[in-house]
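Why do we care about 3D structure at all? Because function follows from shape, and shape follows, mostly, from sequence. That is the central idea of this module. The next example makes it concrete: a single protein chain, its amino acid sequence, and then its structure expressed as tokens.
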Amino acid sequence: EPNDGFLNSHPYYVRTSLLVPAERYRELSDKYLKLKEAYKLPKGKEIKWSYLWRLRVIQKNNSKLNEGHELYFLRDYDYHYLIDFVERSLEMIKRTPDTMVISSVSENIPNWKMEKKRFYEMHIENHMQRVQFEMEDNNHDMAVMFFDSVSSRIDKLIRKIYSDLIEANSFEIKFSHIKDSLNIEYSHQSIGVQLADFSSGVVNSFFKAQDDPDNYERGLEMFHNSIKPILRSVNNNICGYGIIDIPTDYNWRREIKDCL
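And the structure:
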């Protein structure tokens, strides 16, 4: 069970889907690798969103990274430089035609006692529904979904949830445009998962900034510049379509809409 310290520092759970047309994925991957090379970042190492803020704390405290530390490979990089890299990566996503972001968000404190299976199920189901709606615009489109590997236990649980939802056709929605088998990938081997991680981190910063705008000013700026323009929307409405409150809370949804 998470303690109060964890819940206070992680007030939101955010799950993000980055939709990229198959014919654009290679182009996006190549551009990302070239950008990483331009920033002289290690090819075989993943830059995670969470690394930026951990490195920020380390450098602000003038702490030393010892060999064997998870972030040791970033010891010679200023965290501002890495934030610039992430910002350029997000701008690259925005400029890639027909890309789209869908994020589901929960407040952790009121929801952490919910059964984990049901919690994940609500998030995954809402993503699958929105992806299905997007794919239905073209009768020949098919979505293949890739999830980040967390642990063998969580991966197994998520596969089971996904399979059950496909078979149940929840809420009378037939997932006819979503491949029936889920792909779970290691993030360090998947550029798509890495870019989805950046997108999710920025959405999380948007929510945290509502309570602490000074500490999340850069993340908020990236959200409005690069993520908000590609959030899924229907009739110019993002809430409930591109940003989904889990569980549904119409009062909170109105607050989110006002902040957007």
